[in-house]
Structures are given as C-alpha cells and as structure tokens.
Amino acid sequence: MILEMKVPSPGESITEVEIATWLVEDGDYVEKDQAIAEVDSDKATLELPAEVSGIITLKAEEGDAVEVGAVVCLIDTSAEKPEGDAPAKEEKKEEAPAAEAPKATPEAKTYATGSASPAAKKILAEKGIEASAVSGSGKDGRVTKDDAINAVPSMGTPTGGSRTSTTSKMSMLRRKVAERLVEAKNTTAMLTTFNEVDMSPIFALRSEYKDTFKSKHGVGLGFMSFFTLAVVRALKMYPAVNSMISGKEMLSFDFCDISIAVSGPKGLMVPVIRNAENLSFRGVEAEVKRLALRARDGQITVDEMTGGTFTITNGGVFGSMLSTPIINPPQSGILGMHNIVERPVAIDGKVEIRPIMYVALSYDHRIIDGKESVGFLVAVKEALENPTEILMDNDIKKALEL
Questions:
Q1: Residues taking part in catalysis
Q2: Residue 341: which of 353, 325, 352 has the closest Cα?
C-alpha cells in the first residue's frame, strides 16, 4: 500500500510552508513517527513526522514552497525493513587530461612603455597614480596627458586574497520577518523616545539575592523580570500603549501579553508571556527561560508566538549601546534594552560612576501621543531605579518568594 503524506496545517491563516531540510533520503526506510523533514512556515519551524513505516519516496525538493494539503512524499508500507544498508561504491572515472591552454604571446615592450610625459607625470602625481598603472596610448606605449586626465584611481588594493561570494535562499520565516519589518515602517507613524536608567539598585538586589533565588526556584534572577514587571505597571498607567489599531477603531486590552524577542537558530522569534500582570519575579523568569529554550531548540509553536500586546527586545546581550527598535505589528509599542556601561553621572552635585543602560521606546504616533510615550518610559525608569518600593512594595523577600 502506498500512503500519500500531505503537509498538515501548522496553524490558522498559514496556507503554505517551505521544505527547509529533508532528514531522510529518497529510498530510505522510515519508522512511524520518525522525523523526516523540517518545514518552515512564516511563523515557526516544525518537524514533519512519518505517519507510517515503510520506504519513502520524496516528492519535493529542499527549498520548495508547498501548499498546506499538498503531497510531499510517498511511503510504501508493504516494503520490508532492510537488515542492513550496503551503499554501492562509486566507480572512479578517469578524467581526461585537460587540454593545455596555449600560452599567450607577450606584447612587445620598449623603453617608452609606461613612461609618462612631464605634463602627464604632474597630473598622475596629483591623483596619486603610478605611471606604470596606466595604459599609454602614445607612441611605443608612452603615457600622454590625455591618458593621465582619464586615469581613475584604483578603488582597492589587490591583496591576492579570496574574493568569492555565495548566494543562499532566505527561509520563509526570514522572508516573513523582513515583510513585517517593512510593513511596520511603511504603515505606522513610528517615533522613538529615549531615556537612561541607573541600574545600581537592581545590581545591588541581584548581588544579594540571586544565589538564594536560584537555589530555591531553579532559575536565575535576571533583568527581564524587573523590566517585564516595570512595563506591566507602566502599561496600566498608560493604557494607550497597550492598544492597537483595528480598522477605524482603537482596541485596548485589560491584560498584558508581553512578547519577548528571542534569537533562535532560524532567526528572530517573538514568543509571548501571557498575562504577565499576574506573574511574580519567579513566574516571569521561569517563563522567559522556558520560551527561550524552546525557541533555541526549534520547538516553539505558532500558538506560543501568536498575539502579544507589547514587546520587549534586549539588544544589550549582543553589545548594542543604543537602537531604535521596530514595532512588532499590530502592536503599538516596543521597548528596547541595551548594554550596561559604567558612565560618569551627576549625583547630588557630584560626579559618580554608575552602571547606566540606555532604553528606547518606539511607538505608533497614530494612537500614542508624545506625552503618553514619554510618561510611559519615565514610569519604566522610575520602577527600575526604585524597584524595592515600586515593584516589591518594600518587601523584598516576599516579592522574590524567599
């Protein structure tokens, strides 16, 4: 019996996928539920398991875009499992010796070849060009004034190094990310406002409690929990930032689904922390770790990346000092975190060295005014610079569940 394996639907609104990698070869024997291919949709990379055991015949090539429901392979269930594979040895074919290329006859040169007239020498000197690098059109190859005038300086110095280039096809996920970024730039009135955060209080808290926190909860006390809870507080204060445009209406949410940008093996992924307003420091850190590991291992699902009312992205882990993050549509705001650098700052009239992070809020000016955007970012700054009072209600051990 021959079974036709068709592309299953990886999620709502997805109509086609791309064969990223075949994990088996044509003619292989596959076991039921064995992963036979990785397929890319515009939202995630998923494994395609074999529905039955048998000999497989591939019907699509790597890189092919195939519609959901299309046949991608056949499995012959009547075929018996081979006891051992004995790959046939390829016979080496003797290659015919290449015909020897005829040697080029060098052009005759004279003492005048490459020499320049006085006028030409002056022009070439001003251009920084050696006379020997110019092909002379004068008698016996002499470089004339016109040759010097028309000479163009070399745009690079030959080094003898490799100058090859390669072309590779962009994955469907990468192409979709590109489309969404262009869409965000073209369809939103995007502006970015900046501020700086003194991270000293968070450094002090983490230094004192991170070991106890990790030993009790099994996750580290990172920066994401502080930023996520600070963002949740600010979203409640400025609900327009937790809104999006739906047709001619503004859709606002009474919950905070925070998308976090994660770099995975297939590119940027943005899983969602659901109802972050109900999570503690431990809850946020555990969810961030879970989603980051699933994204890294290529196990993230479409449902885990669908939705989100606001995004946090951390370019600081790659060393970014400052950036203007692009909105993740249809959301209306995104907060960019950056690296932490010791900088001189004025504290009570004195210069002190403090760990400073620049933060950036990109927002859709169509529904978020400047007052709200600046107020939102200031609220985030206030919470991060005074976390004990604002985020922990002056009870650190209770907030950290220690």
A1: 365, 369
A2: 353
